[in-house]
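Thread: Modeling a multi-component assembly for a lab meeting

Hi all, long-time lurker, first post. My supervisor asked me to bring a structural picture of a complex we are working on to next week's group meeting, and I have zero experience with this. I have the sequence lines for every component (735 residues in total). Could someone generate the structure of the whole assembly? Inputs are pasted exactly as I received them:
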Amino acid sequence: MSDLLAQLNPQQVAAVTLPPQHALILAGAGSGKTRVLTTRIAWLISTGQASPHAVLAVTFTNKAAKEMLTRLSAMLPLQFGAARGLWVGTFHGLCNRMLRLHHREAALPAAFPILDMADQLSAIKRLLKNLGVDDEKFPPRELAYFINAHKEQGIRAAQAEGYDDYTQRRIELYAEYEAQCQREGVADFAELLLRCYELLSRNEPLRRHYQARFCHILVDEFQDTNALQYRWLKLLAGVDVPAPGASLFAVGDDDQSIYAFRGAEVGNMRAFEREFRVENVIRLEQNYRSFGNILDAANALIQHNQARLGKNLWTDAGAGEPIRVFAGFSDLDEAHYVVDEARALIREGTPPRQIALLYRSNAQSRVLEHQLFTAGVPYRVHGGLRFFDRQEVKHALAYLRLIVNPDDDTAFVRVVNFPARGIGSRSFEALQGAAHRANSSLYNAAAGLPGKAGVAVGNFIRLIEALRAETQGVSLPEVIEHLIERSGLRAHYLGEKEGRERLENLDELVSAATRFLQEEDDTLVNPAEGDALSAFLAHASLEAGEHQAGEGQDAVQLMTVHAAKGLEFDAVFITGLEQGLFPHENSELERDGLEEERRLMYVAITRARQRLYLTHAQTRLLHGQTRYCLPSRFIEELPEALLQPVGHAAAPATYGNPYASGASAGRQESAGGAERAAPEAPGGFRIGQNVHHAKFGAGVIVSAEGHGADARVQVNFGKQGMKWLALAYAKLTAV
DNA sequence: CGCCTATCCTTTTTT
DNA sequence: AGGATAGGCG
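Re: Modeling a multi-component assembly
Sure thing. I ran the full set together rather than chain by chain. Output:
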């Protein structure tokens, strides 16, 4: 047990061995956060202070949960090896589990399906159609966002407030949506949390049961919790009714809060300190990941933020290399440099997988991918379509859902005519009308449907019935295998020219089911709850499936900065460091948007172990238009002593118009292809021209519109942001 | 019913 | 530009 602590520094030991009271661990990037969390659990259990049964550990991603379990099973002595009874999972996973255990009390069917985002969207579309609501006026996507945002605040339609007609109407639709979900016995992601919260808050015996059981609650990435998640934790920890021993151990880093845009509230950390009367705040500031220069840069950058709890990373690893800064003439030029440099690193012995190319938005990956592909460098792009989101997989799962629960309208709609079986929009509308009138599920209404539609739909119903009968008592992978054949899915994709990959994915789904059963068998997470079918369906909804092509391959890693959180690499390139891109221009519209962007940059910088590159381009093709860009203010916020300009030998500190000088134009040609004249802007100005404004200072003309007296130009003023100026009024001078 | 074109919309994303 | 999706036409 003492060897658990042997390799920890004093702060880490202090955190791990805190008495069971509420505690806040401010864990900086690379300070061994996950390690502290897992060691804490292992320590509690192996010292006999807690039975595994009493531990609840919450993470944000399945990946993190899995990682924690893996590390735990390595740490715990054999007698705890199985760690049975330990609850480790995501907020959604844990809520799902409670809801299934107490589905009756939660007013849900035993095998309630979980709607993922796509399902939710189609459920909303169906609702709007049924109600005859104009989906132009109420875009389903926007409505979904509205509903989810309310649920994440813990607000039901009945409690929602709206002060204008439009909001009022949306609240009515929210209520209708709630009713539809309840009728169909389904729950979307946000519903899992809200329903579970309501279950615990309304059902006192149940609440007391869990409060008494979970004496130790541990939360990872606490800065990413939203309002509802925080309230859920409060309820479970029983802050208002302190049960003896119940303690909340929260680990987080306010400087790495990058999910405010989807409802995360950093303020929860302060609220936690206050409302839980936290006496133990421990800072983990020693960084084991990066060299000094990288940390100095990160520290200097984040100090520009006002709202911080305060923390400073340090290392005893030495300064290391300077941070390389590269200015490209164009995005292509930038990509060229990045790929050349990556190749050089690989040649010198850096494993490709230890090189990360980061960017602010996904659209930026294209140029990089192209260069990598041309250069023949293996690479892997993270993000993108997830396994369980693929249409062929969703189709197969929809059949599975119908076997489990025929009243699942979402699943019904998806496959009633897929593969095509003669049920067109006509027949379907007839069915929908019948179901609406009878206030029943589509499946139920199908029985009495007259005419040609009735025959076709009847055939479909018989197919599902047959499937259910034939798969009675058959193992899960075999059920799936059988349904792929019987439904005609395989035949359909066999006949499709792009169908081969889809067929492979269907086979992979069978393997996924097999793996699921195996894991469930010896896992710590899921002691048999309900039947395998619905458990697998929940798994498919909650776990997107990180199965991606080329996973095992040693390749350069491409991803957004968001996706890079929690990872580390020997060499990191932060690309597209330009005003308007990173920080993103849309962040100006958001409250504290710039500070969140800066935290994002902080996350990006702290991913690097040895070498860090910051690159930007003067010209970038965006939305099919050339944009003229100034270097990101985040570069200027770093101490110059840490930076080393590289590339194009004499890259100037302040960047001129690439079209203005002959030398640049020549390079432009070689990098970007055909030479073009700079596009005209009205009033004698040119796009890309450097200008000066009395109030905003130096800027670059980015685009223009209108003629004569109406002429306006868009100017990028760097720190001052992007402005539209009417040439007739603005006092612009050419520089 | 299915294929084709027109139109829309592009920050980040997990569950 | 580019891709995804929706609606219209054959």
